Amino acid sequence: MLLGAPVTADGRPGPALARRLRCALELLRAHPCALLLATGGTPPRAPHHRPEALVAADALAGAGIAPARILVETSARNTWQNAAHSARLLRGQGLERRPVLLVTDPWHLPRALLAFRAHGISARGAGCRVAPAERPPALPRLLLHEGIGLVVYALRWLLRAAWRALARRGDA
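RE: above sequence
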């Protein structure tokens, strides 16, 4: 599962998506029978009109990955939606029992894993290696964002679980 990231104004992968694509390519080449789900829509205020997942799928196909190995989810605008929409897509394809690796940046991985597990996907992380020169200048701000997001997603998961428990109780 390749999580989307910003695309440049001319519709090419931005730095984060390019890193994630390199990692995904490594995994796909090492596991020739594996499928990949690229997830990511067009964020609000995006300078382009192509969903992140389509940009990723095109890049993977351009690198020699058979299009039949690439599933695409283009409506998610954030990590929580990546998980929700991907879970629905996997269930619809009968793939919910297959092992899932999340391909994303290492600082994004804990929040992404939490979101996918909250949506019933048994996921493991495949955090991409990031060379020191590739680290974003805004990394401290990104880490703060991820920390806050992790707390928010944990609360969402707990509230979701509590709501489901109450609904089951009402059905009994």
